[in-house]
Amino acid sequence: MIFKESIFDGKVILVTGGGTGIGKAIAREFTKLGGDVIIASRKEENLIKTSKEIEQETGKQVTYHQMNVRQEDSVREVFKKIEKDKGRLDILVNNAGANFLSLSEELSVKGWNAIIETILLGTFLCSKYACQIMKENNGGIIINIGATTGIFGSPFALPSATGKAGLEGLTKTLAAEWGRYNIRVNLVAPGLVWTEGFVKNVGATESLLENIKKNTPRGIVVEPEDIAWAVIFLASPAARAINGITLIVDGGHYFAKGFGIEM
Ligand SMILES: NC(=O)c1ccc[n+]([C@@H]2O[C@H](COP(=O)([O-])OP(=O)(O)OC[C@H]3O[C@@H](n4cnc5c(N)ncnc54)[C@H](OP(=O)(O)O)[C@@H]3O)[C@@H](O)[C@H]2O)c1
Fold it and tell me: Which is it for the CA torsion 98, 101, 102, 104, positive or negative?
C-alpha cells in the first residue's frame, strides 16, 4: 500500500465507467483507501459484478448507478440521487470512454458522434453536475481520463484522439474557472493499457503487446493499477498545488523512440 489506508475516509467518490478495466481499478484503490465509492455506467451486470467483487475484497460497500454519460437526463438523475443519498460529492473521476478503429475517410457521422459524445459531452455533463454539488460543499476534485493519443495523435482512431485532445482544453478551462469554488481539475493520460475493453475495441493482438514492450523503456507494460495510483496521487492532499495538468502514464513509451537514433 503506497498511501495511508484512511486517506479518503469520509470522501464520496464517483468513478464513471467504474464497472470495468481502468475504472474498476480506480474504484478498487479508492475503496481500499477508505473512500465511499460509487460506480456508474450503462451495463448493470458489470456494475453489480464489480461492486460485489470490491465489497468481498475490501469489506466495504460500493454503490452503483446505471448512467449513460451521453444523455443529460440520465446524468442529472444520478447526481440528484448522489446528493440525496450522500449529501456531498468530493471526487469525480471521468473515466467513461469508448474507441474503435476506422479509416478516417470512411468514418460515419454516427461513429464520430458516439465517441466524441462519450468523451467530451459525457465529461462536460458529469463535471457540470458534480460542480453544482461540490461548490455547495466547499470544493472538490475532478480527474479526467484522457490518453496519450490526444497529445500525439493516433492513426485510425480519429474521434477518440480528437476527443481526448479536447479533454485537455476542458481540463485547463475548468481548472481556471472553478478555482473560485475550490475545485481542482486534472487529466491523466494513459498510454496503452491492456484491458479487455482495449483488446475488444481495437482488436489488439499479442504482437502489439510485444511491440509496446519492446518500445517502452524498461519493457514496462502499464497496468490499470498504474493509472489508478496516478489518479489517487492527484486526488490526494499531496497534489494540493497541482491543477490543470496532464499527467502522462505510459512508462515513457511515446518518448522512447526520440529521433529514432540507435547507438
Ligand atoms: N486501455 C487503454 O489502452 C487506454 C489508453 C488510454 C486511455 N484509456 C481510457 O481509459 C478509460 C477506460 O478504458 P478501459 O481500457 O478501461 O476500457 P473499458 O473497460 O471499455 O472502459 C470503458 C468504460 O466506459 C463505460 N462507458 C462507455 N460508454 C459509456 C456511456 N455512454 N455512459 C456511461 N459509461 C460508458 C463502459 O461501461 P458501460 O459499457 O457499462 O457503459 C466502460 O466501463 C477510457 O476513457 C479510455 O479511453 C484507455
Answer: positive
Instruction: Tell me the CATH number at 50.
Output: 3.40.50.720
Distance CA 87, CA 216 (A): 44
What H or E segment, with its residue span, contains residue 109? helix 109-116
The best mutation among 164, 195, 220, 246 to test binding of ligand 1, ranked by most ligand atoms within 8 Å of the C-beta, falls on 195
* Average predicted confidence (pLDDT) for the chain: 95
pLDDT digits (tens, 9 = 90+) for 187-214: 999 999 999 998 888 888 888 889 888 9
Q: Which domain holds residue 27?
A: 12-250
Kindly state the average pLDDT of the residues 229-251: 97
Per the structure, the count of domains in the chain is 1
222 within a domain of the structure (yes/no): yes
